[in-house]
Amino acid sequence: MSIWLWGAVLIAAVWAAHWGAERLGKPLRKLRSQWGLTQVAGASFVGIAAASPEIGINTTSAFRQVADIGLGTMLGSNIVAIPLLVTAAYIASRKAQLGEADQAEAGEDFESHRRHRQQRFMRINREAVTTQTIPYLGIVAVVALLTIPAPWRGLQPIDGWIMLAVYLVYLAQAVFRGRQAGQQTRWGKGEIEMAVAGVLALAIGAYFTVIATENIVSAIGISEIIGGLFITAPMAMLPELFATWSIARSGQITAASASAIGDHAVTMTIAFFPLALVTVPVNNFPLFVVNLAFVALVAAAYAVLIHWGTPEHGFKLWQVLALDSVYLIYLVAIFLGGLAV
Q: Which residues are in the Sodium/calcium exchanger membrane region domain (predicted)?
């Protein structure tokens, strides 16, 4: 097959994986409501569905012994997603329109939303930093501690078990800090069947995503980790980008922008696990360190820009552009620094 056909397979496979992930999203959102979790706290839990394509890709990469594709996807998606999702949420929030029923439910929040639109400001609940971003930075620090020092450099099985435990701690702090009264929910047979169909679509999509990436990087003549960073990772986040746009346009601004952190906390913990189980050496140590550093830097910039620069928590246009510039600096560091080899 030609590179163009494999490109088409990659696109179809990524969309199949995300279709499957969306079928899991509704059951998890119902559980969030049933357990009484806030939007921000719930994002830490619902992120399992959004990050499940990356989990599937990493599992398939480990199974097929091309773990560098999974490693590149894991790191690359965490770097590119936050700036692009915040940018999409900001643009969509300028166009957000609430119906009469939504306006009545929002009450004073609707007036605030209208005022923020006039001010070209996207308000973000401060919980997006305290409940998600700061613990997420702690997750990244643990990954660095487990994988960078020379005595235990790389991903090893014990690292995977440690990261699973770290995710449980992360989830617990988000749940207990954001607990409200739960709501009664009903589960239909059709919902369960769709969830099962979602799991199957997710598995098939993840498998062919890895197969397609293998063949594309072979045809182009680049390393598997570069293929994961700059081919699979951007493709894997496109459906998430469209979902963020839709959620932000509905007026759920914090949920739209904070989901990026919740999703990628899952990516750095649960999706880390299958790679660690098969033991992944770090073949290009400078590339790995730079990528891990930018994973932390992008999240730190997100937190800093929310807290400082405006009287309220959130983003004005200049802050969105400042966050985007972090990704541009990353590209310069990788390509002009000679690390993309």
A: 8-172, 196-335
Which residue type, as a one-letter code, is found at position 239? Answer: P
Helix, strand, coil shares, percent, the chain, to 5: 80, 5, 20
Query: How confident is the model over 146-186, as pLDDT tens digits?
Result: 999 988 899 999 999 999 999 888 877 766 765 555 566 66
- To 5 degrees, how large is the angle CA 265–CA 51–CA 252? 85
The rounded distance, in Å, linking the Cα atoms of 58 and 46 is 19
Cβ 289 vs Cβ 78: under 8 Å: no
Long-range interactions of 103-108: CB distance < 8 A, separation 24+: 106/251
- The first and second tokens of residue 211, run together, are 């197969």
Per the CB < 8 A criterion, the answer to whether 97 and 285 are in contact is: no
Domains of the chain: 3-335 (1.20.1420.30)
Task: Give per-residue pLDDT as tens, 217-257.
Answer: 989 898 999 999 999 888 877 777 777 777 677 666 666 66
| CA atoms within a 13 Å half-sphere pointing along the CA-CB vector of 332 | 6
How many other CB atoms sit within 10 Å of the CB of residue 11?
A: 14
Enter the pTM of the model. Answer: 0.80
Please tell me the distance from the alpha carbon of residue 73 to that of residue 162, in angstroms, as a whole number: 21
Q: How far is CA 213 from the centre of its chain?
A: 20
Q: Which two tokens stand for residue 259?
A: 């989901």
